[in-house]
What we know:
Chain A has 6 helices and no strands. By secondary structure, chain A is mostly helical.
Amino acid sequence: xxxxxVLTFSSIFAFAVAVVFFIYLVNASKALSYLSTDPKACIxxxxxxxxYATWQHSSHAQRASCVECHLPTDSTVNKYKAKxxxxxxxxxxxxxxxxxxxxxxxxxxxxxxxxxxxSCHARLTEIIISNSDRYHDFSGTPSTERKCWECHRDxxxxxxxxxSSTPNNLGVREQ
Amino acid sequence: MNKYKLLLGGSLVAIAxxxxxASSISGKQxxxxxxxxxxxxxxxxxxSKNEEWARYFPRQYDSWKQTKQxxxxxxxxxxxxxxxxxxxxxxxxxxxxxxxxxFYAVQSNINSLRTGAPVGPATxxxxxxxxxxxxxxxxxxxDEEGENEYxxxxxxxxxxQIVNPIGCADCHDSKTANLAISRPYLKKGLEASGVNxxxxxxxxxxxxxxxxxxxxxxxxxxxxxxxxGKDQVAKVVTFxxxxxxxxxxxxxxxxxxxxxxxxxxxxxxxxxxAQHPGYxxxxxxxxxxxxxxxxxxxxxxxxEGSVKYSDHHIGNPLDNIANTCLTCHRESEEEFKSLVKTKxxxxxxxxxxxMNSLGKAHLAAGKAWxxxxxxxxxxxxxxxxxxxxxxxxxxxxxxxxxxxxPEETLRLLGVANDKAQEARLKLVAVLAKHDVFDYVAPDFSxxxxxxxxxxxxxxxxxxxxxxxxxxxxQEWNQTAVKEGRLNMEPRKGMSDxxxxxx
Lengths: 175, 502
């Protein structure tokens, strides 16, 4: 009976420690900031400092935050599904150090951005689409399938996309 | 019972897993902090050796080092011999050259005949204040000794301390590398002129770091007690900005203070010497009014690959016209240069007129004293000469005033010439009273003739300087190297030009 009591107490104590530890972890990893739309959440770690700095100095900084281009905007469910998927992939890559120095957008990410370009610049793209049959087509693929940034190369992250484009960028000044 | 075992086991596994995660998070956090922190060149005090900064700022250092290319001596006394007459009895009549690159600041100061030929720490004509704009060792010594202490004693006292030429720590904080005012007298001058230091913006700083040296100043005798309680008098560099920054404002300031830099050797006028009021006159020009800073034109951004930084090869923006002037002015390079040339020629014409008039006024005043003129007769004349020469000096003593503020420069030269001519008119009457008619000023059209008139013993000064350079100067450098203040490496291949080395 005495041994049983020790077990009960120690298991409840261990559980309580685990709960407190969990709360600490949520706080230390700034986990809740990922539920917000604040662009600073994207540079909680340093990996995207360059992307943040180039966006911050672009004209898009006045209009669109990170998630407004990079997450689906058609429904909240799709948005959080994408957020969860990206969040899992990013935290895994960051924890295991498996990310590359030169970041490239995924196929899925590119499609999302393209959809958001079109949703904001709807009037403009409508004209492009309605005129698409008059474009020269050398590749055999319909020109409506090309991505906006194949031409608008420096929107919004600049032409040189590597760490060297922002050598003195030290993240957001916190002072 | 099994429930608790499960809970205990599960909790322990979770704690272990979360322990790994917590250690990963804190490791990553350290990584992030180190990436987000700018390099610290020196945590405490001032890093005066420019080479030490090169480790973290190699591009800026390399561009700074290119100021080494600007090593030609242009003897201004030879080019404009009137200067010798205007500055008779003052150091500038001995030796005065056009400016060279920042790299040569210390060498030019040492080679100039104005700083004389000391033989020990307490000899020579000049106070320590003459080092003030030459080196990042100055804020270091001020930091170590105290401001008044730095400004006490003879120039030669700090010969083995002030050894690195104008560089990084003159404009940048050694800890954060941010732009910083390293000279306390600029802060005092700004406050005296009504500037609230807390309202200074980064864009202001891109001019103010230059204004630390490219400004008008005088040496204000300041009494204080040193660490041992002994009475000392420091000669503190001070900006005369309390009445405002214009030539007339400063004149009011100096007149109110009864100040004169020296008494003119020929005309006996209590003179004012304007020291390059570059910042002040730039403030009256259109570029300053439009918020263009010194660095915008003199340190344009540069790109290497995709790395962008500001060019520390400071000099004439016309040498790099495509990246400076033409980024805003859409003329062709040729057309733009010809516009600037016109501005320069306009200034030259009025400047020559004013200098000739002032020179002749000094000589005629000297003649009047000789002929027996009284102080009462001479007083209004000397006042005009003092004021006229001050305005002339203020208008042209800084770099490129004809470009920074063309209208103000020409206005001042016009008024200066008028005052000089008025003095000469009065002198005709004074001379006539003492039976001197048809006085014609002697010829001062070459440096030799002018220095003869001004009584400058040039050869003696040169001989003494050469002796100083082979004796005391060598000791200074050896001590500085031994005590770790000077690295001779960057001086390799450095020329040693002076007005007398030809």
